[in-house]
From TrEMBL:
Pfam families tied to this protein: GGDEF (PF00990)
PANTHER family on file: DIGUANYLATE CYCLASE DGCM-RELATED (PTHR45138:SF9), REGULATORY COMPONENTS OF SENSORY TRANSDUCTION SYSTEM (PTHR45138)
Keyword line: Membrane, Transmembrane, Transmembrane helix
Provenance organism: Amycolatopsis halotolerans
PROSITE patterns assigned to the protein according to its UniProt record, in alphabetical order: GGDEF
Domain named GGDEF: residues: 246-385
Protein name: GGDEF domain-containing protein
InterPro entries: Diguanylate_Cyclase (IPR050469), GGDEF_dom (IPR000160), Nucleotide_cyclase (IPR029787), Rev_trsase/Diguanyl_cyclase (IPR043128)
Residue spans crossing the bilayer: 6-34, 55-85, 105-122, 129-150, 170-203
Length: 394
């Protein structure tokens, strides 16, 4: 924040301000406030449902400001927007909220300064200036946001958690594109700038709908498909296999002695184990395979166009990877621990060899899991259905 204040003061002393630039500031502030009012309910719901950093459309306003007005007015716009957001969209600041609002405003203002510098260095055709400014904004914003997220929890920081997912970055780039177009509109037909509100409303609404869809279809602990969504996908796959005389493999994965982890280290440590195992199952299956959490410590995977033998090979890879996991976590008392030497019993069945319905296939896989546990755990067992296998051979 100190850097932002110093740069703003220096800019105030160095760069003069014209009435036209003050007019642009007022127009951008008015548009930002209008957009906040139009999308207030949407943004509140998005914030409540968000599990990671909340992506706003602030860059739509700060990018034009960075390229059209002096830096001190960019800072003024950032302050106006975030003060208004704090007291209108978020219904006032809660304990500890003021610091977060100040940090976010500082990040966005510095990103605006980065855009202004990049645009100034480009010093060419208006299109080149806009592209350079957008790139400068994106890079500074990504760097500052990533650094802040890393410092919040270095132990659990990953490249994706700090730099954002592909979708997160595409959303930010989309808002910068709208901001770039707004630069052109403000430069030639300022009154048309009000038209930007509707596309932004649709963008924010689409982000909310996408989040609701994710919550409805995804297990929130593991980010795999939840049981209902997995079963719906499995029914579609069995219909496809019936039409095309195809086959698929089904895996049921049950962690051995999982209750001991919860009893020894606590349920939060157990959640970390579930997340680590889910990541392994996802990594060892293909992008089009259906992978889900069936409940508790059970996972399921449906492998389209896969024979029973190949499904067993995949299951063996998963079992081996799980046994090699070293999972850093902590107890309920906050003591750091590493959980390792975990095992899983995996049952494998196949369509149509082990059943002609999803219920029959999964029942066969479940029986194979029990067979694996009864024979010592930490192993893969293929289902045994003598009648069907003899019929298949005949």
């Amino acid at each position: 924040m100190a850097v932002t204040v110093v740069l703003t003061v220096v800019s105030t002393l160095v760069f003069p301000v014209s009435l036209g630039q003050i007019g642009i500031l007022g127009m951008l502030a008015g548009l930002a406030i209008a957009q906040t009012e139009v999308t207030r309910q949407i943004e509140r719901q998005r914030r409540m449902l968000s599990q990671g950093p909340h992506i706003t459309v602030t860059s739509v306003w700060l990018l034009p400001a960075a390229l059209l007005v002096p830096p001190q007015l960019v800072a003024a716009l950032g302050v106006i927007i975030y003060v208004y957001l704090a007291f209108r969209s978020w219904n006032g600041t809660r304990p500890g909220e003021a610091h977060r609002v100040a940090a976010n405003a500082t990040t966005m203002i510095l990103s605006g300064f980065g855009a202004a510098l990049a645009g100034h260095l480009a010093d060419g055709h208006s299109v080149t200036t806009v592209v350079a400014g957008a790139l400068g904004y994106f890079l500074v914003n990504t760097a500052l946001t990533g650094l802040g997220l890393y410092l919040t929890d270095p132990a659990k920081a990953t490249a994706e958690s700090c730099l954002g997912t592909m979708d997160d970055n595409l959303i930010e780039l989309a808002t910068l594109c709208v901001g770039g177009l707004l630069v052109m509109v403000l430069s030639h037909e300022p009154l048309l700038s009000v038209l930007v509100i509707l596309p932004l409303y649709v963008l924010q609404r689409s982000m909310l709908i996408k989040r609701l869809e994710e919550l409805a279809t995804t297990d929130q602990k593991t980010q795999l498909l939840n049981a209902t969504t997995w079963q719906d996908g499995a029914q579609r796959e069995i219909s496809r296999a019936e039409r095309e005389n195809g086959s698929f493999g089904a895996l049921m994965i049950d962690l051995d002695h999982f209750k001991r982890i919860n009893d020894t280290y606590g349920h939060l440590a157990g959640d970390d184990v579930l997340k680590a195992v889910a990541a392994v199952v996802k990594q060892e299956t293909r992008a089009h395979d259906l992978v889900g959490r069936f409940g508790g410590e059970e996972f399921v995977a449906l492998l389209p166009s896969t024979s029973k033998e190949d499904a067993i090979v995949t299951a063996e890879r998963i079992r081996q990877r799980i046994s090699e996991l070293v999972i850093p976590t902590q107890t309920n008392e906050g003591v750091a621990v590493s959980i390792e030497n975990r095992t899983a019993s995996i049952g494998v069945a196949a369509f149509p060899l082990d059943g002609t319905s999803m219920e029959e296939v999964m029942a066969a896989a479940d029986a194979a899991v029990y067979a694996a546990k009864n024979s010592g755990r930490n192993r893969v067992v293929g289902s045994v259905n003598p009648a069907r296998e003899l019929a298949a051979v005949a």
